[in-house]
Amino acid sequence: MLKSIKEWIAVFMIIGVIMLIGNWIGYDVLPWTALPGIAILIGISLAGLIIHRLLPFQLPSIAYIGIIGLILTIPGMPGSAQIATYTAEVNLLAIATPILAYAGVSIGRSWFDFVQLGWKTIVVGMLVLFGTFLGSAVIAEIILRFQGII
Amino acid sequence: MSENALALWKDWRLHVIVLGIVVITESIGIFKIPLGPGTILLLPMLYAVVIGLALYFTPLINDKQSINAEPLVFLSVSILIAKFGVQAGPALPQIIEAGPALLLQEFGNLGTIFLALPLAVFLGMKRESIGMTHSIGREANLALITDKYGLSSPEGRGVMAMYIFGTVFGSIFIGMISGFLATVTPLHPISFAMATGVGSGSMAAASLGPLIAAFPEMSETLTAFSGVSNLISSVTGLYMSIFVGLPLTVKMYEVLSKNKEKKAMKGSVEYVKKH
Protein backbone atom coordinates (compact mmCIF):
# COMPACT_ATOMS: atom_id res chain seq x y z
CA MET A 1 0.00 0.00 0.00
CA LEU A 2 2.72 2.43 1.07
CA LYS A 3 4.73 1.42 -1.96
CA SER A 4 1.75 2.07 -4.20
CA ILE A 5 1.23 5.49 -2.67
CA LYS A 6 4.85 6.44 -3.32
CA GLU A 7 4.56 5.27 -6.91
CA TRP A 8 1.29 7.13 -7.39
CA ILE A 9 2.85 10.32 -6.07
CA ALA A 10 5.88 9.98 -8.35
CA VAL A 11 3.67 9.33 -11.38
CA PHE A 12 1.28 12.15 -10.50
CA MET A 13 4.19 14.57 -10.20
CA ILE A 14 5.39 13.70 -13.70
CA ILE A 15 1.89 13.91 -15.19
CA GLY A 16 1.32 17.15 -13.25
CA VAL A 17 4.40 18.77 -14.75
CA ILE A 18 3.34 17.72 -18.26
CA MET A 19 -0.14 19.16 -17.66
CA LEU A 20 1.29 22.43 -16.32
CA ILE A 21 3.45 22.81 -19.44
CA GLY A 22 0.51 22.04 -21.74
CA ASN A 23 -1.63 24.48 -19.77
CA TRP A 24 1.06 27.11 -20.31
CA ILE A 25 1.61 26.57 -24.03
CA GLY A 26 -2.01 26.01 -25.00
CA TYR A 27 -3.92 28.24 -22.62
CA ASP A 28 -1.38 30.88 -21.50
CA VAL A 29 -1.59 30.07 -17.79
CA LEU A 30 1.84 30.37 -16.19
CA PRO A 31 2.91 27.11 -14.48
CA TRP A 32 3.22 28.68 -11.02
CA THR A 33 -0.26 30.18 -11.34
CA ALA A 34 -1.71 26.75 -12.02
CA LEU A 35 0.56 24.91 -9.58
CA PRO A 36 -1.76 25.09 -6.52
CA GLY A 37 -4.67 23.92 -8.68
CA ILE A 38 -2.89 20.88 -10.07
CA ALA A 39 -1.56 20.04 -6.59
CA ILE A 40 -5.14 20.05 -5.27
CA LEU A 41 -6.36 17.85 -8.13
CA ILE A 42 -3.52 15.40 -7.52
CA GLY A 43 -4.32 15.38 -3.79
CA ILE A 44 -7.97 14.56 -4.52
CA SER A 45 -6.99 11.78 -6.94
CA LEU A 46 -4.61 10.32 -4.42
CA ALA A 47 -7.21 10.44 -1.66
CA GLY A 48 -9.72 8.69 -3.92
CA LEU A 49 -7.26 5.94 -4.85
CA ILE A 50 -6.37 5.35 -1.21
CA ILE A 51 -9.99 5.29 -0.04
CA HIS A 52 -10.78 2.87 -2.85
CA ARG A 53 -8.14 0.52 -1.48
CA LEU A 54 -9.32 0.85 2.11
CA LEU A 55 -13.08 0.56 1.70
CA PRO A 56 -14.68 -2.79 0.91
CA PHE A 57 -17.39 -1.47 -1.46
CA GLN A 58 -17.38 -2.46 -5.12
CA LEU A 59 -17.20 1.09 -6.41
CA PRO A 60 -14.64 2.20 -8.98
CA SER A 61 -11.93 4.50 -7.63
CA ILE A 62 -13.00 7.29 -9.98
CA ALA A 63 -16.34 7.39 -8.19
CA TYR A 64 -14.56 8.27 -4.93
CA ILE A 65 -12.37 10.82 -6.65
CA GLY A 66 -15.32 12.58 -8.23
CA ILE A 67 -17.30 12.58 -5.00
CA ILE A 68 -14.39 13.97 -2.95
CA GLY A 69 -13.88 16.80 -5.47
CA LEU A 70 -17.58 17.56 -5.42
CA ILE A 71 -17.89 17.60 -1.63
CA LEU A 72 -14.82 19.83 -1.19
CA THR A 73 -16.26 22.51 -3.47
CA ILE A 74 -19.88 22.58 -2.31
CA PRO A 75 -20.55 26.24 -1.49
CA GLY A 76 -20.21 26.74 2.24
CA MET A 77 -17.56 24.07 2.76
CA PRO A 78 -14.48 25.60 4.39
CA GLY A 79 -11.99 26.54 1.69
CA SER A 80 -14.37 25.61 -1.12
CA ALA A 81 -14.03 28.98 -2.84
CA GLN A 82 -10.22 28.81 -2.78
CA ILE A 83 -10.21 25.28 -4.17
CA ALA A 84 -12.56 26.32 -6.95
CA THR A 85 -10.44 29.37 -7.79
CA TYR A 86 -7.13 27.50 -7.80
CA THR A 87 -8.36 24.53 -9.81
CA ALA A 88 -10.03 26.84 -12.33
CA GLU A 89 -6.50 27.78 -13.45
CA VAL A 90 -5.99 24.25 -14.75
CA ASN A 91 -7.71 24.12 -18.11
CA LEU A 92 -9.70 20.95 -18.76
CA LEU A 93 -8.30 20.65 -22.27
CA ALA A 94 -4.76 20.81 -20.87
CA ILE A 95 -5.61 17.85 -18.66
CA ALA A 96 -7.11 15.94 -21.56
CA THR A 97 -4.22 16.23 -24.02
CA PRO A 98 -1.66 14.15 -22.07
CA ILE A 99 -4.36 11.58 -21.28
CA LEU A 100 -4.94 11.02 -24.95
CA ALA A 101 -1.21 11.11 -25.72
CA TYR A 102 -0.69 8.23 -23.28
CA ALA A 103 -3.80 6.58 -24.72
CA GLY A 104 -2.42 6.89 -28.24
CA VAL A 105 0.84 5.22 -27.26
CA SER A 106 -1.01 2.45 -25.43
CA ILE A 107 -3.45 1.67 -28.26
CA GLY A 108 -0.60 1.08 -30.70
CA ARG A 109 -0.50 -2.50 -29.47
CA SER A 110 -4.15 -3.01 -30.43
CA TRP A 111 -3.60 -1.72 -33.96
CA PHE A 112 -3.00 -5.12 -35.54
CA ASP A 113 -6.18 -6.47 -33.97
CA PHE A 114 -7.96 -3.37 -35.14
CA VAL A 115 -7.03 -3.72 -38.81
CA GLN A 116 -8.26 -7.30 -38.73
CA LEU A 117 -11.78 -6.20 -37.82
CA GLY A 118 -14.07 -6.39 -40.83
CA TRP A 119 -15.81 -3.36 -42.32
CA LYS A 120 -19.08 -4.52 -40.78
CA THR A 121 -17.58 -4.27 -37.30
CA ILE A 122 -16.30 -0.79 -38.06
CA VAL A 123 -19.70 0.39 -39.30
CA VAL A 124 -21.62 -1.19 -36.42
CA GLY A 125 -19.02 0.07 -33.94
CA MET A 126 -19.47 3.63 -35.12
CA LEU A 127 -23.23 3.30 -34.72
CA VAL A 128 -22.77 1.92 -31.21
CA LEU A 129 -20.81 5.03 -30.20
CA PHE A 130 -23.16 7.31 -32.10
CA GLY A 131 -26.27 5.73 -30.59
CA THR A 132 -24.92 5.74 -27.04
CA PHE A 133 -23.92 9.39 -27.24
CA LEU A 134 -26.89 10.79 -29.13
CA GLY A 135 -29.39 8.66 -27.20
CA SER A 136 -28.33 10.24 -23.92
CA ALA A 137 -28.35 13.73 -25.37
CA VAL A 138 -31.88 13.32 -26.74
CA ILE A 139 -33.29 12.05 -23.43
CA ALA A 140 -31.49 14.80 -21.49
CA GLU A 141 -32.87 17.39 -23.91
CA ILE A 142 -36.45 16.13 -23.59
CA ILE A 143 -36.39 16.19 -19.80
CA LEU A 144 -34.56 19.52 -19.51
CA ARG A 145 -37.10 21.11 -21.86
CA PHE A 146 -39.96 19.49 -20.01
CA GLN A 147 -38.63 20.97 -16.77
CA GLY A 148 -38.12 24.33 -18.47
CA ILE A 149 -34.42 24.45 -17.57
CA ILE A 150 -33.27 25.09 -21.12
CA MET B 1 -2.29 -2.44 -12.21
CA SER B 2 -0.76 -0.63 -9.28
CA GLU B 3 1.22 -3.76 -8.35
CA ASN B 4 3.40 -3.39 -11.42
CA ALA B 5 3.32 0.39 -11.15
CA LEU B 6 6.83 0.17 -9.80
CA ALA B 7 8.59 0.98 -13.05
CA LEU B 8 5.97 3.42 -14.30
CA TRP B 9 7.54 6.68 -13.22
CA LYS B 10 10.96 5.48 -14.29
CA ASP B 11 9.91 5.09 -17.91
CA TRP B 12 11.47 8.41 -18.85
CA ARG B 13 11.41 7.69 -22.54
CA LEU B 14 7.62 7.45 -22.40
CA HIS B 15 7.13 10.61 -20.32
CA VAL B 16 9.49 12.67 -22.46
CA ILE B 17 7.69 11.52 -25.59
CA VAL B 18 4.30 12.40 -24.10
CA LEU B 19 5.67 15.80 -23.05
CA GLY B 20 6.92 16.26 -26.62
CA ILE B 21 3.49 15.34 -28.01
CA VAL B 22 1.81 17.81 -25.62
CA VAL B 23 4.20 20.64 -26.55
CA ILE B 24 3.69 20.07 -30.27
CA THR B 25 -0.08 19.57 -30.20
CA GLU B 26 -0.79 22.46 -27.84
CA SER B 27 1.35 24.73 -30.04
CA ILE B 28 -0.71 23.74 -33.07
CA GLY B 29 -3.91 24.64 -31.24
CA ILE B 30 -7.54 24.22 -32.31
CA PHE B 31 -8.72 23.92 -35.90
CA LYS B 32 -12.31 24.43 -36.92
CA ILE B 33 -13.55 22.72 -40.06
CA PRO B 34 -16.95 23.93 -41.23
CA LEU B 35 -19.00 21.02 -42.50
CA GLY B 36 -22.38 22.01 -43.85
CA PRO B 37 -24.25 23.80 -41.08
CA GLY B 38 -22.01 22.37 -38.35
CA THR B 39 -18.37 22.44 -37.36
CA ILE B 40 -15.88 19.68 -36.68
CA LEU B 41 -13.41 20.80 -34.04
CA LEU B 42 -9.94 19.36 -34.16
CA LEU B 43 -8.37 19.70 -30.71
CA PRO B 44 -4.80 19.12 -29.54
CA MET B 45 -5.98 15.98 -27.74
CA LEU B 46 -7.12 14.54 -31.06
CA TYR B 47 -3.71 15.10 -32.67
CA ALA B 48 -2.16 13.69 -29.51
CA VAL B 49 -3.91 10.35 -29.81
CA VAL B 50 -3.04 10.08 -33.50
CA ILE B 51 0.62 11.04 -32.99
CA GLY B 52 0.89 8.64 -30.04
CA LEU B 53 -0.52 5.85 -32.18
CA ALA B 54 1.79 6.70 -35.10
CA LEU B 55 4.85 6.76 -32.83
CA TYR B 56 4.14 3.17 -31.86
CA PHE B 57 5.32 2.19 -35.34
CA THR B 58 8.61 4.07 -34.96
CA PRO B 59 11.65 2.90 -32.98
CA LEU B 60 10.90 5.68 -30.44
CA ILE B 61 8.22 3.57 -28.78
CA ASN B 62 8.71 -0.04 -27.79
CA ASP B 63 6.17 -2.48 -26.44
CA LYS B 64 7.38 -1.57 -22.97
CA GLN B 65 6.26 2.06 -23.35
CA SER B 66 2.97 0.95 -24.82
CA ILE B 67 2.32 -1.42 -21.93
CA ASN B 68 3.31 1.21 -19.34
CA ALA B 69 1.10 3.81 -20.99
CA GLU B 70 -2.08 1.94 -20.12
CA PRO B 71 -2.02 2.44 -16.33
CA LEU B 72 -0.81 5.98 -16.97
CA VAL B 73 -4.00 6.65 -18.91
CA PHE B 74 -5.91 5.49 -15.85
CA LEU B 75 -3.91 7.67 -13.45
CA SER B 76 -4.14 10.77 -15.63
CA VAL B 77 -7.87 10.18 -16.09
CA SER B 78 -8.19 10.28 -12.31
CA ILE B 79 -6.91 13.88 -12.40
CA LEU B 80 -9.56 14.65 -15.00
CA ILE B 81 -12.19 13.11 -12.73
CA ALA B 82 -10.94 15.25 -9.83
CA LYS B 83 -11.34 18.28 -12.10
CA PHE B 84 -14.89 17.12 -12.91
CA GLY B 85 -15.55 16.88 -9.19
CA VAL B 86 -14.36 20.36 -8.24
CA GLN B 87 -16.38 21.84 -11.10
CA ALA B 88 -19.48 20.00 -9.95
CA GLY B 89 -19.45 21.23 -6.33
CA PRO B 90 -20.12 24.91 -7.04
CA ALA B 91 -22.80 23.91 -9.55
CA LEU B 92 -24.56 21.61 -7.09
CA PRO B 93 -27.86 23.57 -6.95
CA GLN B 94 -28.04 23.50 -10.75
CA ILE B 95 -27.18 19.82 -10.79
CA ILE B 96 -29.89 18.96 -8.29
CA GLU B 97 -32.38 20.93 -10.33
CA ALA B 98 -31.37 18.98 -13.42
CA GLY B 99 -31.25 15.72 -11.45
CA PRO B 100 -34.05 13.94 -13.30
CA ALA B 101 -32.44 14.62 -16.67
CA LEU B 102 -29.04 13.51 -15.38
CA LEU B 103 -30.40 10.24 -14.05
CA LEU B 104 -32.73 9.42 -16.92
CA GLN B 105 -30.22 10.21 -19.67
CA GLU B 106 -28.40 7.09 -18.49
CA PHE B 107 -31.12 5.20 -20.31
CA GLY B 108 -30.06 7.03 -23.44
CA ASN B 109 -26.93 4.91 -23.44
CA LEU B 110 -29.28 2.16 -24.58
CA GLY B 111 -29.61 4.08 -27.84
CA THR B 112 -26.94 1.82 -29.27
CA ILE B 113 -29.32 -1.14 -29.04
CA PHE B 114 -31.98 0.54 -31.13
CA LEU B 115 -29.56 1.96 -33.66
CA ALA B 116 -26.66 -0.46 -33.98
CA LEU B 117 -28.30 -3.83 -33.28
CA PRO B 118 -30.79 -3.72 -36.20
CA LEU B 119 -27.97 -2.78 -38.54
CA ALA B 120 -25.75 -5.56 -37.22
CA VAL B 121 -28.50 -8.14 -37.77
CA PHE B 122 -29.25 -6.68 -41.19
CA LEU B 123 -25.58 -7.04 -42.12
CA GLY B 124 -25.84 -10.71 -41.29
CA MET B 125 -24.18 -10.81 -37.89
CA LYS B 126 -25.40 -13.55 -35.58
CA ARG B 127 -25.02 -13.61 -31.82
CA GLU B 128 -21.81 -11.58 -32.13
CA SER B 129 -24.13 -8.60 -32.46
CA ILE B 130 -25.33 -9.06 -28.88
CA GLY B 131 -21.83 -8.61 -27.49
CA MET B 132 -21.07 -5.82 -29.90
CA THR B 133 -24.08 -3.59 -29.51
CA HIS B 134 -25.38 -4.09 -25.97
CA SER B 135 -23.14 -1.29 -24.71
CA ILE B 136 -20.16 0.80 -25.61
CA GLY B 137 -18.07 -2.25 -24.74
CA ARG B 138 -15.48 -1.00 -22.28
CA GLU B 139 -13.70 -3.02 -19.61
CA ALA B 140 -16.72 -3.55 -17.37
CA ASN B 141 -18.80 -4.86 -20.27
CA LEU B 142 -15.99 -7.08 -21.45
CA ALA B 143 -15.99 -8.60 -17.96
CA LEU B 144 -19.77 -8.96 -17.93
CA ILE B 145 -19.97 -10.77 -21.28
CA THR B 146 -16.97 -12.95 -20.51
CA ASP B 147 -18.56 -13.90 -17.23
CA LYS B 148 -21.91 -14.74 -18.81
CA TYR B 149 -20.99 -16.29 -22.16
CA GLY B 150 -17.21 -16.81 -22.12
CA LEU B 151 -14.75 -14.94 -24.26
CA SER B 152 -14.64 -17.54 -27.05
CA SER B 153 -18.44 -17.56 -27.51
CA PRO B 154 -19.97 -15.53 -30.37
CA GLU B 155 -21.08 -12.92 -27.82
CA GLY B 156 -17.55 -12.82 -26.43
CA ARG B 157 -16.04 -12.32 -29.87
CA GLY B 158 -18.52 -9.52 -30.48
CA VAL B 159 -17.71 -7.61 -27.30
CA MET B 160 -13.99 -8.11 -27.94
CA ALA B 161 -14.34 -6.64 -31.42
CA MET B 162 -16.19 -3.64 -30.03
CA TYR B 163 -13.60 -3.28 -27.29
CA ILE B 164 -10.75 -3.19 -29.81
CA PHE B 165 -12.66 -0.84 -32.07
CA GLY B 166 -13.47 1.50 -29.19
CA THR B 167 -9.92 1.38 -27.84
CA VAL B 168 -8.35 2.44 -31.10
CA PHE B 169 -11.04 4.55 -32.70
CA GLY B 170 -13.42 5.49 -29.88
CA SER B 171 -11.96 8.76 -28.67
CA ILE B 172 -11.11 9.91 -32.20
CA PHE B 173 -14.61 9.18 -33.48
CA ILE B 174 -16.54 10.57 -30.52
CA GLY B 175 -14.28 13.64 -30.48
CA MET B 176 -15.19 14.38 -34.07
CA ILE B 177 -18.95 13.79 -33.77
CA SER B 178 -19.45 15.56 -30.44
CA GLY B 179 -18.63 19.07 -31.64
CA PHE B 180 -20.32 18.44 -34.95
CA LEU B 181 -23.58 17.19 -33.44
CA ALA B 182 -23.63 20.04 -30.93
CA THR B 183 -23.31 22.62 -33.68
CA VAL B 184 -25.58 20.94 -36.24
CA THR B 185 -28.51 19.66 -34.13
CA PRO B 186 -30.94 21.89 -32.24
CA LEU B 187 -30.10 20.08 -29.00
CA HIS B 188 -28.69 22.20 -26.17
CA PRO B 189 -24.96 21.90 -25.31
CA ILE B 190 -25.94 20.92 -21.76
CA SER B 191 -27.73 17.86 -23.12
CA PHE B 192 -24.56 16.85 -24.92
CA ALA B 193 -22.48 17.53 -21.81
CA MET B 194 -24.72 15.06 -19.96
CA ALA B 195 -24.22 12.58 -22.79
CA THR B 196 -20.42 12.57 -22.39
CA GLY B 197 -20.69 10.13 -19.49
CA VAL B 198 -20.52 7.04 -21.66
CA GLY B 199 -18.39 4.94 -19.36
CA SER B 200 -14.89 5.69 -20.61
CA GLY B 201 -12.60 8.37 -19.25
CA SER B 202 -10.71 9.09 -22.45
CA MET B 203 -13.92 9.15 -24.49
CA ALA B 204 -15.45 11.53 -21.94
CA ALA B 205 -12.48 13.86 -22.36
CA ALA B 206 -12.59 13.56 -26.13
CA SER B 207 -16.30 14.33 -26.32
CA LEU B 208 -16.35 17.15 -23.76
CA GLY B 209 -13.35 18.95 -25.27
CA PRO B 210 -15.06 20.03 -28.49
CA LEU B 211 -18.15 21.17 -26.54
CA ILE B 212 -16.02 23.47 -24.41
CA ALA B 213 -14.14 24.73 -27.43
CA ALA B 214 -17.40 25.43 -29.25
CA PHE B 215 -19.16 27.04 -26.28
CA PRO B 216 -16.37 28.57 -24.17
CA GLU B 217 -18.74 30.88 -22.29
CA MET B 218 -20.49 27.80 -20.84
CA SER B 219 -17.35 25.80 -20.12
CA GLU B 220 -17.83 25.61 -16.35
CA THR B 221 -21.44 24.49 -16.53
CA LEU B 222 -20.68 21.97 -19.26
CA THR B 223 -17.78 20.50 -17.30
CA ALA B 224 -19.90 20.25 -14.16
CA PHE B 225 -22.70 18.37 -15.92
CA SER B 226 -20.28 16.18 -17.79
CA GLY B 227 -18.55 15.37 -14.52
CA VAL B 228 -21.72 14.35 -12.74
CA SER B 229 -22.86 12.33 -15.72
CA ASN B 230 -19.52 10.51 -15.71
CA LEU B 231 -19.84 9.93 -12.01
CA ILE B 232 -23.33 8.45 -12.40
CA SER B 233 -22.21 6.28 -15.31
CA SER B 234 -19.23 4.97 -13.39
CA VAL B 235 -21.45 3.89 -10.54
CA THR B 236 -24.56 2.70 -12.40
CA GLY B 237 -23.17 1.75 -15.82
CA LEU B 238 -22.45 -1.90 -15.14
CA TYR B 239 -25.77 -2.50 -13.38
CA MET B 240 -27.55 -0.79 -16.23
CA SER B 241 -25.96 -3.32 -18.59
CA ILE B 242 -26.70 -6.29 -16.35
CA PHE B 243 -30.33 -5.50 -15.63
CA VAL B 244 -31.49 -3.53 -18.66
CA GLY B 245 -29.02 -3.32 -21.54
CA LEU B 246 -28.06 -6.94 -22.02
CA PRO B 247 -31.50 -8.53 -21.48
CA LEU B 248 -33.02 -5.95 -23.83
CA THR B 249 -30.38 -6.66 -26.47
CA VAL B 250 -30.95 -10.42 -26.25
CA LYS B 251 -34.73 -9.97 -26.55
CA MET B 252 -34.41 -7.60 -29.47
CA TYR B 253 -31.88 -9.83 -31.17
CA GLU B 254 -34.31 -12.75 -30.98
CA VAL B 255 -37.14 -10.69 -32.44
CA LEU B 256 -34.98 -9.19 -35.17
CA SER B 257 -33.36 -12.44 -36.22
CA LYS B 258 -36.73 -14.23 -36.26
CA ASN B 259 -38.15 -11.54 -38.53
CA LYS B 260 -35.17 -11.91 -40.75
CA GLU B 261 -35.54 -15.66 -40.93
CA LYS B 262 -39.22 -15.31 -41.74
CA LYS B 263 -38.43 -12.92 -44.55
CA ALA B 264 -35.73 -15.22 -45.84
CA MET B 265 -38.11 -18.18 -45.64
CA LYS B 266 -40.81 -16.27 -47.44
CA GLY B 267 -38.32 -15.30 -50.09
CA SER B 268 -37.19 -18.85 -50.66
CA VAL B 269 -40.77 -20.17 -50.73
CA GLU B 270 -41.64 -17.64 -53.41
CA TYR B 271 -38.50 -18.57 -55.23
CA VAL B 272 -39.54 -22.23 -55.18
CA LYS B 273 -43.06 -21.37 -56.33
CA LYS B 274 -41.81 -19.28 -59.22
CA HIS B 275 -39.51 -21.94 -60.49
UniProtKB/TrEMBL annotation, chain A:
Q: List the keywords (alphabetical).
A: Membrane, Transmembrane, Transmembrane helix
Superkingdom of origin organism: Bacteria
TM segments?
7-27, 33-55, 62-84, 90-112, 124-144
Q: Mind telling me what this protein is named?
A: DUF340 domain-containing protein
Organism from which the protein derives: Planococcus donghaensis MPA1U2
From TrEMBL, chain B:
InterPro entries noted in UniProt? DUF3100
Q: Which domain of life is it from?
A: Bacteria
Q: Which residues cross the membrane?
A: 12-33, 39-60, 72-95, 107-125, 161-184, 190-215, 227-250
Keyword Secreted, does the record have it? no
**Could you tell me the keywords of this UniProt record?**
Membrane, Transmembrane, Transmembrane helix
- Signal peptide location: none
Query: What is the name attached to this protein's record?
Result: DUF3100 domain-containing protein
Question: Which source organism?
Answer: Planococcus donghaensis MPA1U2
Q: What is the lineage of its organism?
A: Bacteria, Bacillati, Bacillota, Bacilli, Bacillales
